[in-house]
Amino acid sequence: MKKNASRNSKTVLTAILTAIMALGLAACASTPDANENLISNDAGEIKAVNLFGPMEKSKPNATNVSRNAFDRTVEMAEDQLGLTVEYRTYTAENYQEKTYDDVVLDRVRHNMDDFYLMNPDTILALGSEGRLLDLSGLDCVKNLRDVVKTANTVDGKLVAIPQEVVAYGLFVNKDMFDQYKLKLPNTPEEFLECCRVFKENGIETPIGVNRWWLETFVFAQGYADLYNGGNTEAEIEALNNGEAKYSDYMRPGFEFLKELIDKGYIDAKTAYTSEAIEAEGPDFLAQKTPIVMAYWSAANAETAYGKPDFNLQVIGFPSSLGQMPVIPITGYAVCTGAEHLDDTLKVLDVILSDEALQLYTETNKVISPSKNVEVNCIPALKPLNEKIKNNVYVLGSNAGMNVEQWGNTCLIVRELLNGATVDECMAQFDKLQQEAIEKKTAAEN
Predict the structure, then answer these.
(1) Which of 55, 51, 53 is nearest to 25 (CA)?
(2) Which of 3, 36, 116, 292 would suit a FRET pair with 67, their CA atoms being 20 to 30 Å apart?
(3) What is the Rg, in whole angstroms, of the alpha carbon atoms belonging to the chain?
(4) CB under 8 Å to 281, separation ≥6 — which residues?
(5) What is the DSSP letter of 110?
(6) Contact 173, 312 (CB under 8 A)
């Protein structure tokens, strides 16, 4: 893999946080006044906990829905606990060449903040180093969906909890499927047949693509049985100790993508160079292409796919077990060396309570990490939501796996788009797995 692969992987993972915190909406936040919302204790001192994240606290009239939703849960904690949450913000101009993940790693290792919003790779790295607190004792944990606990458990410790579960699916123009008398596909074979029919009827590229999200096809096919076959823990343990190979799981998905490229159902050159939604969005909305892939909230955002002129349906990706949502998990994590540890845990218990998550979920119309909080989703998202409610999904990130999944798979998919063979791509996975095993062995010795 190229020398900049590690940095590129972090850029890929930071895009997940962008999906969560921005949602493609107008960002009208500005830096808060230093004395805003401060609450003093009886001794005249300010009680505070420090959050490091990719966003500032928004002003009262800001129009970014996602930021306001988070801010409102923070205000609940401030009011209940008599303290303030100070936002310490990542900005690219301040950190120049460092990605958000680079900065988080450095700040946690130097105990610079109390809690952080983290991407999957930093959760895995810092959890493995023992630098993240086990959050399993929080009151809110008893209400968490299993998917959250599975994804963010490192060495038996639950080290991060999100305020929403980000789900990826296929966004399809149901009207175009109906026009050609096609059923929505469940399996890879059915998906290929749909693409064939579209292609033969003059649709040049049936699938709109970008350089970030084609790995979703790989995860759905590679891990359908692993996450839905009742033997998840044992299979992951076999991968971590080298008894099983990641490449064996990934091969069917890469062969599937290679077939899509060879048959002209996706444009590999476009996929290699294009940004998400900007590239494929216009043709999808203009009904020139029937299929794209995106995250849940893109169906709600007017700047993405929130107002199409056709019957939009969001379904899972094709797999041997049918339509399969793909879920990468981020989360809020607490530094073990947090200066204000007790207060930080109290803050988390408030902002991750069912009451706060109900507010957050209703505001953003997203999937809650709590099994007690249901999203009132738009009709287009109901097929995807039903799968997740029934615990049918695959994880695109899992801190329990010793090879980071989302970013690495995206980069290796890009190698395929750039002309690499499937065997060459599988060799990349074998190399990553061997390096992870050697790292673990060295740490144990």
Answers:
(1) 55
(2) 292
(3) 22
(4) 208, 292, 304, 305
(5) T
(6) yes
Give the Å distances, CA to CA, from 279 to 163, 208, 269.
29, 8, 12
Contacts of 200 (CB under 8 A, 6+ apart): none
Token pair, residue 375, equals 């999203």
- This prediction has a pTM of 0.84
pLDDT tens digits for range 48-94: 999 998 866 545 444 444 457 889 999 999 999 999 999 998 775 56
Q: What is the pLDDT of residues 378-393, one digit of tens each?
A: 999 999 999 998 989 9
Pairing of strands 168-173, 312-315: antiparallel
The closest of 186, 220, 10 to 100, measured between CA atoms, is: 10
Question: In 3-state terms, what secondary structure has residue 51?
Answer: strand
Fill in the amino acid letter for 436.
A
CB contact at 8 A, 371 and 143: yes
- Are the C-beta atoms of residues 17 and 99 closer than 8 Å to each other? no
In this structure, the strands spanning 291-295 and 115-118 are: unpaired
DSSP track, 167-198: -EEEEEEHHHHHHTT-PPP-SHHHHHHHHHHH
Residues 152-175: b if buried by 16+ CB within 10 A, e if exposed:
bbbeebbbbbbbbbbbbbbbbbbe
Give the β-pairing of 168-173 and 48-53: unpaired
